Amino acid sequence: MSGLAPLDDVRAEILGAVGALEPVEVALVDAHGLVLAVAVTTSEDVPPFANTAMDGYAVRAADTAGAGPDTPVRLRVVGDLPAGHAPDRAVGEGEAIRIMTGAPMPEGADAIVMVERTRAEGVEVWIEAEVDAGTHVRAAGGDLTRGQEVFPAGTLLGGAHLGVLASVGAGTVRVFPRPRVGVLSTGDELVESGSGRVEPLAPGKIRDSNRPMLLALVAEAGFEPVNLGVVRDDEDRITALLEEALAQCDAILTSGGVSVGDYDYVKAALDRLGHLEWRQVAIKPAKPLAFGVVRGTPVFGLPGNPVSSLVSFELFARPAILQRAGHPFRFRPEVMARAEHAFTRKPDGKLHLDRVRVEWSEGGYVARSTGNQASNALAATAAANGLALIGDGDGVQKGEAIRVMLLNAAPDH
Ligand code: AMP
Ligand code: MG
Residues lining ligand 2 (ion), CB within 5 A? Predict the structure, then answer.
């Protein structure tokens, strides 16, 4: 079919036009979900000192030679060392210091005998096991060594990363900022929703489902949602609103008004502010898409039908904004599943994206439709955890392999 642009071409065009945000320095506690803009190198050893991995006794390994359950060796206990305290004396020949997990190894001691292999008796302890030097000792720098690169630039910071960065004494990190993403609904038919107040529906009106949906999807992606409200089909008002939003957002999503209808003013408004590309993408749902970088800010004119809006966000806006946030991976993982039933379709020059539920069953994924596949039927989409990618043709037979993009999984490419 002529005039339709392949999905991959449109994606490549958009990703080619969207740059990363200027990196900022943020406190470690605020860096969760952000991407490192520069590598982090540690100036400290982790652990910072040699310490014990067990509760027990710090000893000289040589003193335990020949010790066993029936041949215990007796040592003099010369100290008691809890975690968080520095040793105040060394361990000499024939001596031991009682020690708790995490406490520093005292001078002179080179091994730990775990408490389960000992028997305390007054100021002495019976050692019932022979240990080699280094037993249950955690070396200084055993996890990370001073001068070592801890994480390269491009690392997405999760919980474990923040823990590691805290362990090396990183107070702040240089990251790509969390993009502020404005969400605007357009349409004369829309009644405001989601704020707690519920208006009755006058004839011809519907509730604005796209804005609450997109604001949530934006937050789910790790971006900061900015609610731009609902605007009527009025070119001047849309233009004014977008003008304001461009100043405070790192990306903007509008929905509605990008089809070929008589009242589709989003395209016109954006064209007044800057150049806008309008594409008919060879996919179903979500064929129309307006895209442009206006005054440095990418703007996505998503289609109005809620399912199309979601799919368009997923395929175009989300990867582009992830790129803006410095993410090395932008695309959801795909798996091959077995079709639980036939996915029939007709040749129309488009890639079909059916909403499906995929489950792991008997060593593989199985996919089944979540129901009504019309582009306004959002309920079936809410039940989906995947988009089945069904290429142009007659569809996929029951039991055949079907390609599925996983909707809830972190990007892997
Ligand atoms: P449009 O792209 O403006 O022609 O809208 C296409 C379809 O999506 C129409 O049926 C609209 O009523 C519907 N629609 C547009 N915006 C929304 C919205 N925010 N929430 C729910 N439906 C919408
Ligand atoms: Mg409209």
Answer: 187, 256-257
Instruction: Indicate the pLDDT class of residue 2, thresholds 50, 70 and 90.
Output: low
* Mutational pocket test of ligand 1: of 183, 213, 376, the residue with most ligand atoms within 8 Å of the beta carbon: 376
- Predicted pLDDT of residue 1: 44
Tokens standing for 28? 């470690």
What CATH number matches the domain at 334-406, 3.40.630.30, 2.40.340.10, 3.40.50.300, 3.40.50.2300?
2.40.340.10
**How far is residue 9's CA from residue 132's CA, in Å, rounded to a whole number?**
64
261 Cβ closer than 6 Å to some ligand 1 atom: yes
Beta pairing class for 24-27 and 51-52: unpaired
Tokens 């175009």 -> residue: 316
Residue nearest ligand 1's atom 23 by CA:
304
Proportion of the chain above pLDDT 70, given as a percent:
100
- Ligand closest to Cα of 213 equals 1
155 CB within 6 A, ligand 1: no
Where residue 271 falls among pLDDT bands split at 50, 70, 90? confident
